[in-house]
Specification:
With about 200 residues, the chain is of the alpha/beta class. It has seven helices and nine strands, in the order αββαβαβαβαβαβαββ.
Length: about 200
């Protein structure tokens, strides 16, 4: 992996507008694709360095900024991989091309996360939620049910403060199940937990 090229791509994506863009699949699904903030990116990298997960799952690829921060935490000698999911075909294809050009171990899966999960065959030591906020809990429960995550998996979730009302049932689930978690006061709020 060419660290300089990776850093240059992160800087390029960081220089792009953070205003975000709306999206729709034409079937009543809509949302707002908004890049992570730099303070979240550096924390994602630090989490990967600290926990050394072999397999990471990201839900909500967009243009790949958060994926690149996660990959930047990889130890080149360990063989770590990242699977990421986005339901926009154009964005998924473009982002996979970016990852291929950078020669990083990232596979972009196209489709609705709940439909992609059963096709995955890795067990993930880390999962990062950053797609539809009101789907976080449904997605987490599906991952647990499919045995893709479990005891010891590190769970990260963005936007738990700036979009707290959409994330509330997800946040309540950690409290109700007495799962050790913390919310880091980033610009958007990052939940960090271990199942």
């Amino acid at each position: 992996m060419d660290r300089r090229a990776l850093q240059n791509e992160i800087e390029y994506l960081e220089s792009q507008s953070k205003i975000g863009e709306s999206y729709s699949d034409g079937k009543d699904r809509y949302g707002w694709r908004n890049p992570i903030r730099k303070d979240t990116g550096t924390l994602l990298k630090a989490m990967v360095i600290a926990h050394k997960p072999s397999n990471i799952l990201e839900i909500g690829t967009a243009h790949g900024l958060s994926a690149l921060y996660l990959v930047d935490g990889f130890n080149d000698d360990v063989g770590q991989k990242l699977d990421t999911i986005d339901f926009d075909l154009v964005v998924s294809t473009s982002t996979q091309s970016r990852m291929d050009r950078l020669n990083v171990p990232v596979t972009v899966h196209f489709g609705d996360a709940l439909e992609v999960f059963p096709k995955l065959n890795n067990r993930y030591e880390m999962v990062f939620f950053d797609a539809q906020k009101n789907q976080y809990l449904t997605q987490l429960k599906s991952l647990i049910h499919l045995n893709l995550v479990g005891n010891g998996t590190v769970v990260l979730a963005d936007n738990v403060l700036d979009r707290k009302s959409e994330c509330q049932t997800f946040l309540d689930w950690f409290q109700e199940n007495d799962i050790n978690h913390n919310i880091i006061q980033t610009e958007c709020g990052l939940l960090v937990a271990r199942l």
